[in-house]
């Protein structure tokens, strides 16, 4: 029975050994990749992890301000675009009114010309001049 308990504990030790090897490799990689000065900077960053919370709070406030400014700018641009569209609608309406009034007057002129043409034809037919 003692062998059974040893076999159960051995895989746990093996797993812990794997973790130790991985940690050792990570430390070696840091030493090889980073020069001494940056190694101290990394250590300082790890020690000052409480300052990260303050930086993120300031970053969140800054992001909120940027979002608010972007939102206000978007509203202003939208207002300008809507105003421009309304202006174009009124301009188009006035132009259409001008064109329709011209068409009505031209229609009246054409009707008058038709009446005059009919009168001339009647006069010519009555006078006996034929084509």
From TrEMBL:
Transmembrane segments: 66-90
Pfam (any one): DUF4577
Keyword set, alphabetical order: Membrane, Transmembrane, Transmembrane helix
Keyword Heme: no
UniProt name for this protein: LSME1 protein
